[in-house]
Protein: Protein putative RECOMBINATION INITIATION DEFECT 1
Amino acid sequence: MRGEVLFVLYKLCAIIRKDDKGVPPSLLAYCPKLLHLLLEALLKTHNDTVRFNCLALLTLLARQGCFESAYTNGISSSKSWDEEADHLINVLFAESVKGPLLSSDTQIQISTLHLIFHYLCCVSPEQIQLLVDENIADYVFEIIRLSECKEPVVNSCLMVLNLLSTAEKGFTERLVVGFSTLIPVLRYVAEVPFHPVQHQTLTLVWKGISDSPGIVSVSQIEELVIVLARMFKWHNDGEMGLPAETFITACSIFVALLNSPSFIWTSNLVTSLQETVTHAIVACLNISEKDPNQFLHALYLLKEVYACSPEEVPMNDSSIIELRSCVVDICKSHLLPWILMAINEVDEDIALGILETFHFILLQNSDVQAPQFAEILVSSSWFSFSFGCLGLFPTEKMKWRVYLMLSSLVGILLENDAGQPIREVASNLPTDPIDLLLLLGQKSSKNTFLDSCQCAVLLILYTSSLYDDRLADEKSMLASLEQYILVNSSDLLCGIVDPLKMTQLINLYGLSRAAAKMNHQIPYSPEAERILFHLLNETEWDLPSSRIHLESLEWLFQQEKISKPLSNQILKFCRSNSSNRTQIIVHGENQIMNLQVISEMASSADNHVARLCVCLLIQLVEEESQEHDIISLVKLMAMIINIFPSASDQLCLHGIGHAIRTLYHNSSCGSSPQVSMAMTYLMFNILQSVHPEALCNDEAWLAVTVKLMGSLIPAQSVKCWPDEGLRVVAMFCLILHQSTNKVLVEASKTIFLSTSLASTINSMIQAACSKGPSLLDCDEETSTGENLMFALLLFYFSLRSIHTVVPGTVDWQNFLNPSNRMQPISTVSIHCHDLCRLLHFGSPPVKLVASYCLLELITRLSEQRNTRHEELKSSVAYLTSIMVILKGLVFYSDIRVSTNCSLCLSMILGWEKLDMTGARVIAKNTWWRLIVEEMAISLAAPSLASKSFINHHKPAVHVAVALLKLQKSPEWMRTVFDDPCISGIIKNLEASNISSEMVLLFRELLNSRFLKDEQIACLNRILQV
Structure:
């Protein structure tokens, strides 16, 4: 019967509506008593039908505001409804819903939850608190636990819990108990786009973690991170949208998880964090309508991820470094390009948020990532961008953020908290760069505050200029700097100038003047220049420990008026370089100026670096300065040439030869072993890289050569050169080499006409030749082998020099005749048969140099015979003995040795025209046929003639060509080069492997009529490719 009554009441209430004036109908005047009766019925009944109808009626009344009306009516109706009744009905409500919540009927549970939800929507916080105190939340959590995440039960539960969570007391404790039931629910709702209780679930999870950080276990953290990371990924990929409030709550959960004591750093968690923060930032950037609140929460998450560092994990842990590198990469790859491009369109809060995030990273100066990020910012013209922000958002908040960030940025870039001057006067600095220049141009004498502001301005302009970030045009910059120098000249000239301020002035002024030099329309003040140059000449400043723009540095070294202070800076640079301390740093990648920049300038004629180095060396020598200063300067010049060999030209043109002569003849340091070693290294570098036209001072180099020859004589008496002597011999080789270009002629004569040097070399050669087969063990690793190598090299360069310097004074045939050793002039001499012994018995390096010497001798002899039309003074037997050695090396593994020997053989065969008898005897030797056949068969073999294989047989080609050129070539040549052989060689030829030697061979075969028409046609096609 009660069920039917309740049903009738439900229908009646559904029909009743409030009138237009909001006054409840007459039935609702009995609302308090009706609610009381309904709640008592719900409490006492166990009949599901009665419960269902009662819940439906109560829910309808709650939706129509009857619970709220009951309180109002009670208060206005003569004490029929007082505070005690109010409390009792709420207690009755709490008790009456507990039974239905425990019902096994899901529909009754859902109806009960709907009733609670609508009840909570219209009651006061005190009534909500009462329901929490009555443990309703525990019932709801239990329903969730048993629901297996089935809708709509879970939806109703979460909507109720979301309202219960507004209670001031008690709910947190119940949330701790029921927290574990929310994890599977979140896993479910997170996978459904725009799920109706997605935000409510996230809110409850966030409230639980933030209010009770220890509530969440390690496994739950891992699961939550994975779920949320997936949400952000789907949101970023466009697979599932997230409302702004849901996105913000998800970010807040992540932050709470990072601060949880249960958060343990694992590789999977670090990876998920990286993916999450990346997707969160990128998603915000991709949204067309930027929500500042959403954007700021994403930035907050980014900062918290960067700052997250558990106590048990060291700062240098790979996971920490990896995570922070990921954050910096997000800023570099996403945030920085976006804000640079979109700054004119974004909200000020978003711009401030991004600047604050960047500033936060910079403040972690102990990290490796902070300096890296600072370099990224300045390479993106951050100074100009910062002042652009001040122009767009002229607020105090933006001004503070910009200048404080610039202070931190400068502090990282210049180190030692260099940004402090900016931080101290940030509130008083203008927001326009033009105003900064105007501030700089004022007189700051006896005005400490203005001086501090000007220091900050100079620091900003200086640091930005190092990275080519110009805040003003060159004309305005130069005018402002000149005004600063002129109006403050008395203080600058009379007082002690701060070294940092001096560096800033030099850099900015030099940079501005360099630009003015390029643009002749920009005037400059000679008086300001005079004052600054006076400061440079009179004030102690340290360029090697400063950072300076390359253009400014180049301009400084173009100013002859400050040669003295620049020479002092070069000496400081030498000292700092020798002690491996920090040297001049150049803008760009902050590279240390370890010779690279100064070497580049020394190689150019548009500055005074080379001249200053030479003059400084002369000055140090004449003043008999400390030895280590001379050594460091000499080493500097040697290293400069190593980096830029063309610098040797500039050094020579400015008199390095004179400086070296001065050191050797007028200084006590010249006898120092350390100075001597450094000088020989420098001279060697100069002589091997200088162009002949720069070696104009032959007299100075002659004096140096004589001095070095004198130092070599004591070593010659022991028939073996020490290391220092070998270095001198190496320089002699280079002097002789340079003399082939008609320079250093007198110095070269001193070398190849030295009788003591010739005697030493002859003794070394004779001793080596007497060793026989054991000479093979004397390679460059042994003292004997090393001395022999240098003696042969000196002989080789002497031959080339003699031919150029004193042409026609040597009878080259005497080198073939062992019985006649007399020469018109006394020179270093090694006869052909001695060279052949070295070729036969020597180690590979000895064979190589000896082959070049023999080739030079045979070449000069051939030229002499062709010019003078002389007959050979040597016997056929002697020539045969030479050729026996040469023929054995035609197929030697070192292609250079085999080529040299083949060229010698081809020239000897060419002597046939003047000595027919000797040539015929030579040509009949079976070794010739063996060489030619080996070459021909190898080149004609199918699929064997690769480029490297053909190169290996190039030397033998020279022999074959020489034999073909004989007036009467051997008959067996036609047998060797028959049609199949020639066709096979042609078949193996391609455009990629054909060489000049092969062209010479086929030309001689053509001249000797060995080729047929079709072979000639085939060759033409190959050569035309």
